[in-house]
Known about the structure:
Shape: globular
Strand content: 5-15%
Radius of gyration: 19 Å
Largest sheet: 5 strands, antiparallel
Amino acid sequence: xxxxxxxxxxxxxxxxxxxxxxxxxxxxxxxxxxxxxxxxxxxxxxxxxxxxxxxxxxxxxxxxxxxxxxxxxxxxxxxxxxxxxxxxxxxxxxxxxxxxxxxxxxxxxxxxxxxxxxxxxxxxxxxxxxxxxxxxxxxxxxxxxxxxxxxxxxxxxxxxxxxxxxxxxxxxxxxxxxxxxxxxxxxxxxxxxxxxxxxxxxxxxxxxxxxxxxxxxxxxxxxxxxxxxxxxxxxxxxxxxxxxxxxxxxxxxxxxxxxxxxxxxxxxxxxxxxxxxxxxxxxx
Length: 284
């Protein structure tokens, strides 16, 4: 479905007429779950492209206000929940707009120890939030349960990457002791498109569609998706990741990146480029 600004204006006017006069501006984002538009100066409209994305709307409206009060960095706050209609068939949302830019793999921010420390502070604060009644995260399964899909991606990418070294890295991750403790809150998708930075510092974390309870190693993917080697060490020290958790985190980053590269190699060059960068960081 093609989502144009005129559609967004019509939805806002029909369901939230008090915002009908605000300008609508498309946001240049590489995400595949939501189309995002800026509404006026301080609001954002998120229109899910998939049924799964639509299911995330209720989760975010329920939990983001709870999380926001306990996190050290801004996160989007839900302002209104749109309902399906003839013009758009899914639930959608209006939330607060947050300033900042998405980092790019290998840019100056990725080498910043300050950004690494900020990310660690965010991850640790999220883990400390009471897990009572919290939903399972999108990535709440065990790392081992991803083995078949990950190896299928490895086969599909045989001519694109060093299959021997990449397989060895995946086998090493699977050999790490599994997570058996009580799950904690995780963001679940700490990738460049879901964090905002300014002057090499973290300014906000967005898109909580994957949030919930899981192995804390899931959020360690930030180390490879957002940081270079030196800053990665700073991040690991700050989150006090033991060897098993760190190895599982590397495995999560590798599995996610392999599946993304296999799926988006032609359909989404930005996502594919990020995934390729992550695989290179892990293998080399």
